[in-house]
Write a structure and sequence with these properties.
heterodimer, A: 327 residues, mainly alpha, 14 helices, globular, B: alpha+beta, three-stranded mixed β-sheet, 11 helices, 13 strands
Chain lengths: 327, 405
């Protein structure tokens, strides 16, 4: 029969998994872009890839310490944001969408090609960059925790660092959104021309917002690769779309929305795929194979995106008055 | 490939300097091809792996001769004459890519002019099939304001339907293609009637509509994978030999038929847009929907026709793409979606003829860029051009200034 305990405990583990933290932080960055400023950034996967590769390449190829590798990743994403923003931020919103999605794909193709195999490891990616980060771990070796949340010292270390970053950046976002700067970018979302009429440099504010949210994405990309390897195939456009699903689920113009959205998204996804896999195994759905059961969840994510946007565009936490969608 | 992760930490490796390459023919990797290196008193050999990749370490920086053993190539494939030994030297990096150019057994010319000509013909072929999809996308954008990401799935649909009717149900291929195009048109109509028209009625904004199309694209794509699996399958005739010789260019009947079909369909569509009443109405709505509605044009009817035509064109484009790649797979449309968007943006959003011009430029650029870019990077060039065009002429080649708002 179906092992419900395993399904529930796997799903519960997603609550605090580093992947959930990474998606939450990336979605928080998108909240700044899309929710607060109204920028349609479809290249968050590119920012995450820059974080992952910036960190891994600096560590592996140049032997940088952890702090320097993090800085390299952040620096790369600032430059990337400038390159994206300069041609498009003066244009209509959908131009930024097309350019960011294209730029993220360019990055992925460059990381995948054989030409730079010595640096990027091409399609097979990179690993072995975690030493410096693991050395910083103050937790003595051993296994800690209770119930489903039992991990070794390294696993706890990445969870603590990941979620600390999420909390710190959530607080930072909360502070800057209620600052004068935050009021200006929300004004840009509502009516760009009105803000311009008040003498604000809209272009510059948009650029700052793009860079800030991009840096969130970059740090998220670093958290994302701590429990796994850097593989270019992870940075496809579907990654961006999943982050959008999380953001829309939680509420685009909220602080808690991206974080709780990420938890709900991953817990539900884990529960659903765990259940489907075991149900198919138990012969509940004789017309379906294990592989097909695995694909069902992507279909579900797609349908969920459509339904949320149409029927609850403000998400779980959002306020309908502060609807993020620009014209 | 565990050593890739530690490529920089040399203790695991014997050598610091590497020659690498990728042996492919017609975009398919060739396995077990023997490559040898000789020079500076050192020699070694290796075989390509399942991905057609090979990698040879050498002890020191310097000039080496690399040889591809023609005997290990599949039948009918040879290295371009005089190129099976390449002399290579390291530049600033510790890695040097060496590529052997393969061709059909009977091909003898290798000069650059012939190379360019071959790429131009391939590029035109690819550009024309992109144009079929791009015109639909552009007109849908022009008439409804929707950036339809699910257009990729409308492209894939055409290929999948030919697979279903022409291979699984074994109907004659011409009949399968006609059925596929009719069903693609029906898909366009269905999507409009069940999703987009109700959403327009609700007054949903353009950005939410775009996100809905992303969700739809995701859901449809994985639905295809659910039913058709992850494998690539061939349509009948997709692998027939190239036996038409025009000077240095060799083409197959499929290539010729594909180009002829695109040109005829594009001409017919141009006639429809320029000469028929409903075509003129379509252009008017695409230009300014409210003005068109005010002058008595039935905008809803025009939009319905645009979706039907867009679906049929995308389906046809998918069929031709399945022959060009070659192969039908669940995500084949998504692979070219960004190129279609690039073409539409290049030509000017919302203009049908701009989409045609943009597509041909993108197709030519992608094929010609393989003269100097490695083939796994050929899409990079096209996407960079897209960003550059937005920098200097954001309204696109045939677009008008006010559209960029």
């Amino acid at each position: 029969m179906i092992d419900w305990i395993a399904i529930f405990s796997n799903a519960a583990q997603e609550l605090i998994s580093p992947t959930t933290a990474a998606y939450a932080l990336a979605a928080l960055g998108l909240a700044i872009h899309f929710g607060y400023t109204g920028l349609l950034n479809f290249g968050q996967a590119g920012f995450m890839a820059l974080g992952a590769y910036g960190f891994a390449i600096s560590t592996l190829s140049f032997g940088f310490p952890v702090w320097a590798s993090v800085l390299v990743g952040v620096g790369a994403s600032v430059i990337f944001a400038l390159i994206l923003g300069i041609p498009t931020l003066r244009l209509r919103a959908d131009y930024l969408a097309i350019v960011t999605i294209a730029a993220a794909e360019i990055l992925r193709l460059i990381f995948t090609t054989n030409t730079f195999d010595s640096l990027t490891g091409s399609a097979s990616g990179l690993q072995g960059y975690k030493g410096g980060f693991a050395d910083l771990n103050p937790i003595p070796p051993g296994t800690y925790g209770f119930g489903p949340f039992t991990y070794n010292a390294y696993d706890w270390w990445i969870r603590i660092v990941g979620w600390t970053l999420v909390v710190v950046f959530a607080l930072l976002t909360w502070l800057i959104i209620r600052s004068p700067w935050g009021r200006v970018i929300k004004g840009i979302r509502e009516d760009e021309d009105a803000v311009r009429a008040l003498g604000k440099n809209v272009y510059s504010y948009k650029m700052q917002s793009l860079i800030l949210g991009g840096v969130y994405g970059t740090l998220a990309g670093m958290i994302f690769v701590l429990p796994r390897a850097v593989v270019p195939a992870n940075y496809q456009t579907s990654l961006t779309f999943f982050i959008y699903a999380i953001l829309l689920l939680g509420g685009a113009a909220t602080i808690l929305g991206p974080i709780v959205g990420s938890m709900i998204f991953w817990v539900l996804l884990s529960f659903f795929s765990g259940f489907m896999a075991r149900a198919v195994e138990a012969g509940w759905f004789p017309f379906m194979t294990q592989v097909q059961a695995g694909q069902l969840r992507f279909i579900l994510v797609g349908i969920a995106i459509m339904l949320i946007v149409v029927f609850r565009p403000q998400g779980i936490f959002g306020n309908k008055k502060e609807l993020a969608f620009v014209k | 490939m565990a050593e890739a992760g530690s490529a920089a930490t040399t203790e695991a490796e014997e050598f610091e300097y590497f020659f690498v390459g990728n042996v492919t023919f017609d975009d398919k990797p060739l396995r077990g091809v023997q490559i040898s290196v000789d020079g500076n008193g050192y020699d070694a050999e290796t075989k390509t792996d399942a991905d057609g990749k090979w990698r040879l370490g050498v002890p020191e920086k310097g000039e080496y001769k690399l040889t591809l053993d023609e005997e290990t190539l599949p039948k009918g494939v040879v290295v371009k004459e005089g190129q099976n030994t390449i002399t290579a030297e390291f530049g600033l990096t510790k890695l040097k890519a060496v590529n052997f150019f393969l061709g059909e057994g009977q091909r003898t010319t290798t000069d650059i002019g012939a190379q360019v000509l071959i790429r131009v013909i391939n590029g035109l072929n690819f550009g024309l099939l992109l144009a079929l999809a791009a015109i639909g996308l552009s007109l849908i954008f022009g008439t409804t304001g929707l950036s339809n990401f699910a257009h990729a799935e409308m492209i894939t649909f055409g290929g999948l339907m030919v697979l279903t009717f022409g291979v699984d149900l074994a109907l004659p291929i011409w009949l399968a293609i006609i059925i596929a195009i009719v069903l693609s048109a029906a898909l366009g109509w269905t999507l409009d009637a069940t999703i987009w028209k109700p959403l327009r009625r609700r007054g949903v904004g353009l950005i939410p509509l775009m996100i809905v199309s992303i969700g739809l694209s995701l859901a449809l794509r994985y639905t295809y994978q659910f039913f058709y699996g992850g494998a690539t399958r061939q349509l009948p005739g997709a692998t027939i030999p190239s036996d038409i010789h025009l000077g240095p260019v060799t083409l197959s009947w499929i290539d010729v038929a594909s180009m002829a079909t695109s040109i005829v369909v594009l001409l017919a569509f141009a006639f429809f847009l320029l000469r028929t009443r409903i075509g003129k109405a379509t252009r008017a709505v695409s230009d300014n929907p409210s003005l068109a509605a005010a002058s008595g044009i039935d905008v809803d009817r025009v939009i319905r026709i645009v979706w039907i035509a867009g679906g049929a064109l995308a389906g046809l484009s998918g069929i031709l793409w399945a022959y060009f790649r070659p192969g039908v797979s669940w995500d084949m449309g998504f692979q070219i979606l960004l190129l279609v968007f690039a073409a539409v943006t290049l030509g000017g959003l919302g203009t049908a003829f701009g989409a045609l011009v943009g597509s041909i430029i993108v197709g030519l650029f992608i094929e010609l860029s393989t003269l100097w870019l490695p083939s796994d990077m050929k899409y990079v060039g096209a996407l960079i051009v897209l960003i550059l065009v937005l920098l200097f002429r954001p309204q696109g080649i045939l677009g008008r200034r006010e559209r960029i708002g």
